[in-house]
Amino acid sequence: MPVSCFMNCIFCNLSVFLLALSVVSFAILWKHDVQTEFHYNAVHLRNASPPFIFIGLAFIAYQLSRSCPWRQRIQGLLLGAAFALWGCEQFLPAGPWLTLMDDLVIGIFVLDLGIIMASQLLKKE
Protein backbone atom coordinates (compact mmCIF):
# COMPACT_ATOMS: atom_id res chain seq x y z
CA MET A 1 0.00 0.00 0.00
CA PRO A 2 1.52 3.36 -0.99
CA VAL A 3 2.29 5.75 1.85
CA SER A 4 -0.23 8.39 0.68
CA CYS A 5 -3.01 5.79 0.49
CA PHE A 6 -2.07 4.54 3.96
CA MET A 7 -2.12 8.05 5.40
CA ASN A 8 -5.43 8.82 3.68
CA CYS A 9 -6.89 5.73 5.35
CA ILE A 10 -5.56 6.75 8.75
CA PHE A 11 -6.94 10.30 8.43
CA CYS A 12 -10.28 8.99 7.17
CA ASN A 13 -10.63 6.61 10.13
CA LEU A 14 -9.50 9.34 12.51
CA SER A 15 -12.12 11.71 11.11
CA VAL A 16 -14.87 9.12 11.66
CA PHE A 17 -13.68 8.49 15.23
CA LEU A 18 -13.54 12.22 16.03
CA LEU A 19 -16.96 12.74 14.46
CA ALA A 20 -18.34 10.02 16.74
CA LEU A 21 -16.73 11.72 19.74
CA SER A 22 -18.32 14.99 18.68
CA VAL A 23 -21.78 13.41 18.47
CA VAL A 24 -21.38 11.68 21.84
CA SER A 25 -20.10 14.84 23.51
CA PHE A 26 -23.01 16.80 22.05
CA ALA A 27 -25.41 14.18 23.46
CA ILE A 28 -23.85 14.67 26.90
CA LEU A 29 -24.26 18.44 26.54
CA TRP A 30 -27.88 18.09 25.42
CA LYS A 31 -28.73 15.67 28.26
CA HIS A 32 -27.31 18.05 30.85
CA ASP A 33 -29.07 21.06 29.35
CA VAL A 34 -32.42 19.28 29.24
CA GLN A 35 -32.01 18.20 32.87
CA THR A 36 -31.20 21.75 33.96
CA GLU A 37 -33.98 23.22 31.81
CA PHE A 38 -31.42 25.02 29.64
CA HIS A 39 -30.07 27.26 32.40
CA TYR A 40 -26.62 28.53 31.51
CA ASN A 41 -24.00 27.47 34.05
CA ALA A 42 -20.36 26.45 34.37
CA VAL A 43 -21.11 22.79 33.59
CA HIS A 44 -22.79 23.83 30.34
CA LEU A 45 -19.76 25.89 29.39
CA ARG A 46 -17.42 22.97 30.13
CA ASN A 47 -19.65 20.49 28.24
CA ALA A 48 -20.06 22.81 25.24
CA SER A 49 -16.37 22.82 24.36
CA PRO A 50 -15.67 19.18 23.35
CA PRO A 51 -18.22 19.04 20.49
CA PHE A 52 -16.57 22.08 18.89
CA ILE A 53 -13.06 20.72 19.41
CA PHE A 54 -13.87 17.21 18.16
CA ILE A 55 -15.81 18.34 15.08
CA GLY A 56 -13.05 20.81 14.21
CA LEU A 57 -10.38 18.12 14.50
CA ALA A 58 -12.60 15.66 12.61
CA PHE A 59 -12.95 18.11 9.74
CA ILE A 60 -9.19 18.71 9.69
CA ALA A 61 -8.55 14.95 9.53
CA TYR A 62 -11.21 14.63 6.81
CA GLN A 63 -9.54 17.37 4.75
CA LEU A 64 -6.22 15.56 5.07
CA SER A 65 -7.79 12.27 3.96
CA ARG A 66 -9.14 13.46 0.61
CA SER A 67 -7.62 14.63 -2.62
CA CYS A 68 -8.81 18.05 -3.60
CA PRO A 69 -7.35 21.28 -4.94
CA TRP A 70 -5.03 22.96 -2.44
CA ARG A 71 -7.33 25.98 -2.09
CA GLN A 72 -10.23 23.80 -0.99
CA ARG A 73 -7.98 21.93 1.40
CA ILE A 74 -6.65 25.12 3.00
CA GLN A 75 -10.18 26.46 3.29
CA GLY A 76 -11.31 23.26 5.02
CA LEU A 77 -8.29 23.23 7.31
CA LEU A 78 -9.02 26.82 8.33
CA LEU A 79 -12.66 26.01 9.04
CA GLY A 80 -11.71 22.98 11.14
CA ALA A 81 -9.13 25.03 13.01
CA ALA A 82 -11.71 27.74 13.73
CA PHE A 83 -14.09 25.23 15.31
CA ALA A 84 -11.30 23.62 17.36
CA LEU A 85 -10.10 27.04 18.55
CA TRP A 86 -13.66 28.05 19.38
CA GLY A 87 -13.94 25.01 21.63
CA CYS A 88 -10.53 25.58 23.22
CA GLU A 89 -11.25 29.19 24.04
CA GLN A 90 -14.06 28.09 26.36
CA PHE A 91 -11.38 26.87 28.77
CA LEU A 92 -9.45 30.15 28.88
CA PRO A 93 -9.98 32.77 31.55
CA ALA A 94 -11.00 36.25 30.45
CA GLY A 95 -7.98 38.20 29.29
CA PRO A 96 -5.78 39.00 26.31
CA TRP A 97 -5.31 35.36 25.18
CA LEU A 98 -9.05 34.77 25.11
CA THR A 99 -9.60 37.97 23.15
CA LEU A 100 -6.84 37.04 20.69
CA MET A 101 -8.25 33.54 20.19
CA ASP A 102 -11.74 34.92 19.75
CA ASP A 103 -10.48 37.40 17.16
CA LEU A 104 -8.69 34.59 15.30
CA VAL A 105 -11.85 32.46 15.22
CA ILE A 106 -13.94 35.37 13.95
CA GLY A 107 -11.30 36.25 11.36
CA ILE A 108 -11.12 32.67 10.10
CA PHE A 109 -14.91 32.43 9.78
CA VAL A 110 -15.08 35.78 7.95
CA LEU A 111 -12.22 34.81 5.62
CA ASP A 112 -13.59 31.33 4.94
CA LEU A 113 -17.16 32.44 4.21
CA GLY A 114 -15.85 35.42 2.23
CA ILE A 115 -13.82 33.09 0.00
CA ILE A 116 -16.86 30.86 -0.56
CA MET A 117 -19.06 33.84 -1.42
CA ALA A 118 -16.45 35.45 -3.69
CA SER A 119 -15.87 32.24 -5.63
CA GLN A 120 -19.62 31.78 -6.15
CA LEU A 121 -20.12 35.40 -7.18
CA LEU A 122 -17.21 35.20 -9.65
CA LYS A 123 -18.71 32.05 -11.23
CA LYS A 124 -21.96 33.93 -11.95
CA GLU A 125 -20.17 36.73 -13.84
Notes on the protein architecture:
This protein is mainly alpha-helical and about 120 residues long. It has one domain (about 5-125). About 85% of the residues lie in helices and about 0% in strands. It contains 4 helices and no strands. Helix 1 runs antiparallel to helix 2 and helix 2 runs antiparallel to helix 3 (about 70-90). The longest helix has about 35 residues, at about 5-35. The radius of gyration is 17 Å and the shape is globular. The N and C termini lie far apart (about 45 Å). The relative contact order is 0.11. The model has no long low-confidence stretch (mean pLDDT about 90).
Please give the radius of gyration in angstroms.
17 Å
H/E element string? HHHH
Principal-axes geometry comes out as globular
Query: Structural class of the secondary structure composition?
Result: mainly alpha
Beta percentage is under 5%
- How many domain units? 1
The number of distinct helices, counting runs of at least 4 residues, comes to 4
The separation of the N and C termini measures: 44 Å
Helix coverage percent: over 70%
Number of strands: 0
Overall pLDDT: 90
Q: Which regions have little confidence, pLDDT < 50, spanning 5+ residues?
A: none
Describe the oligomeric state of these chains in a short phrase: single chain
Q: What can be said about the biggest beta sheet?
A: none
What is shown here, in short?
This protein has helices at residues 3-35, 42-65, 70-89, 96-124.
